[in-house]
Amino acid sequence: MSVKYHRIMSAGLLAALFLGSLFLVPALWAQSVALTPVDRKDEWWSKRHDANVAQMEKGDIDLLMIGDSITHGWDNADPSKNYKKVWDSYYSHRKPINLGFSGDRTEHVLWRLDRLPLDKISPKAAVLMIGTNNVGHGSSSPKETADGIKAIVEKLEKQYPEMKIIVLNVFPRSEKPDDPLRKAVNEINSYLPELLKGKENVTLLDINHVFLDADGILPKSIMDDRLHPGALGYELWAEALEPDLMKALGEENPATKPADKMHEEGWKQRFGEQVTQMKRGNIDFLMIGDSITNRWHDKMDILRKYLGPCKPINLGVEGDQTQHVLWRLDNLPLDKISPKVAMIMIGTNNMGDRANTPWMIADGVRAIVDKLQATYPEIKIVVLEVFPRGEKPDDWARHRVEQINIALRDILKDRKNVDLVDIGDSFKAADGTLPKDLMPDSLHLSNKGYEIWAKKLAPVLKKKFRR
Questions:
Q1: Helical pair 396-411 and 231-249, crossing angle rounded to 10 deg
Q2: Residue 300 has what pLDDT?
Q3: How far apart are CA 361 and CA 255, in angstroms?
């Protein structure tokens, strides 16, 4: 080989290596971008971060909610959206901080965590949902994004070794399962079990099924733009997260812990009457609830008008919550009767304690159903969705009832011998208000309201009695 030819080859090789390196350096950079803390220059972003810093400096924070616009959206106070109302129902009493920032990727969360005064707080739990923008913006591959999620988790673990961390699978996006972005999100999620394996205080939670229909389609009713949850989407998120979040926060559900009110003379007397009637036997129909059920006591002729002959016991008690019903069921002589059907309408009074989330209340109803089925395996149970309360559709109580009923639909679905029935709309006027002639105090029914109840429910009950 000539020296000239050798020099040409060497020069060519060097040129090739140099050109290759131009492509290699960006590739190396792209592989690490999801792991490299970086801020954003938007003014609103800096102000929001400063507000987080100020809130954290004050301390007294138990719950970190970390993410992007999907978490940021909980702050939306637009009355037409209801997102903030869901937040208030589920989280406001739990001393939270919203660390969600619209448009953020894993690298932005890492930057923020590096600059927050994390030493000022001792949170009990964190909820993390991040990554959709990494693939949506094309800045990272699914695997790189998953590595970024792991890096956030490890940063949190290092700062708070005892804190419980719930990592949510990145939510589905795009309408159809075969959309490239849906596949990219699914790929991120596929790496997380292995990356987070063995982390003692970390729970990887997949709630994505609650957003999708049976064919994997993401409905507009849940995410209008097929990315950000709407009002129903936030309801479903909060409800699906609740059991794991309660555990992470070390909470018990007061709605499922039997409690009596024997110190109240009226309650004690009413319970005694129920015990006496039950000991006599000859009961085929349990009517379980609070004051709304209790007030059937002088209206049984209305019930029999539509249902026909029956042998009921009215187990409604003024002011009762789910835990009080559970106590009564534990202490009533249930072995003295063999009822065929039970009707349950309970939960509105649990709303008085803001620490009772809608899911907790619905779970209290579930506990009542479990108790009845354990005692009477063949009993047919009709659970009524909690009746609307609050005169106007935008009343806080009205919205809270709707949240409880959404949770009931999920908790009681596919239960054998259990029907969940909604007759709430029958009490509403065309404009959604509760008419005074049906609910004089926007909570309890008039005789006309009880007639509507009996008329609407009779076909369901007759079927249960096999009439």
A1: 70
A2: 92
A3: 6
Clarify whether residues 1 and 71 are in a common domain: no
Strand extents, DSSP E, 53-151: 63-67, 96-100, 125-129
Task: Say how far apart CA 253 and CA 358 lie, in whole Å.
Answer: 11
Q: Are residues 209 and 332 in the same domain?
A: no
Q: What is the pTM of this model?
A: 0.76
Instruction: Answer yes or no: do 21 and 163 share one domain.
Output: no
Do 43 and 30 share a domain, yes or no? no
pLDDT at position 17 is: 44
Task: Report how far Cα 368 is from the mean position of its chain's Cα atoms.
Answer: 20
**% of the chain beyond a pLDDT of 70:** 93
Name the domain boundary from 251, 269, 295.
Answer: 251
CATH number at residue 276: 3.40.50.1110
- Is the domain of 277 the same as that of 212? no
Whole-number pLDDT of residue 399: 85
Residues 115, 12 share a domain = no
Tens of pLDDT, residues 260-286: 999 999 999 999 999 999 999 999 999
Nearest to 131 by CA among 65, 189, 177: 189
| Alpha carbon distance 46, 454 (integer Å) | 58
Model confidence at 19: pLDDT above 70: no
Structure tokens at 436: 């005074």
**Residue indicated by tokens 């395996």:** 377
Give the pLDDT score at 338.
97
Q: What pLDDT, in 10s, does the model give residues 342-371?
A: 999 999 999 987 778 899 999 999 999 999
Catalytic positions, please?
291, 441, 444
More confident residue, 21 or 295: 295
166 and 307 housed in the same domain:
no
Range of the domain at 22: 1-35
Sequence length of the chain is 467
Q: How many domains does the chain contain in total?
A: 3
